[in-house]
Sequence to fold (139 residues):
Amino acid sequence: MKNISIENKISSLNIIASYVEQFGEENNLSFNIVFELNLILDELITNTINYGYIDNEIHMIDIFMDIENNNIVIKIIDDAKEFNPLSKDEVSTDKELEQRQIGGLGIHIVKQKTDDIYYERSGDRNILKLVKSLTPKEK
Fold:
């Protein structure tokens, strides 16, 4: 298992990108998989940093990545305010841009790029577990 702890600063996204690229190299992952992992983490961590904290203090966000049974498993743990992304209404992507509500598209992308998502609140921590299969889906 590979893990990293980052500060709740947007500049930490560069650290995450390097972490994901290294994980991809170590596990011989394709460019597309690495790109999707970066997209997933960028969306989730950006939301946590921008909307999860009500103070200006430094908070640590822990990210764990592993490969289990031909799946990439990502776990994100933070002490931001409680937020369950699974409780958000689905975004309607069939409407014109002008008719869509603002927000929620990042979570929609994360749901599209992963196979399973689990959320729990434990004490003052959000724990988000994402599973992405390395086996291509049949169309």
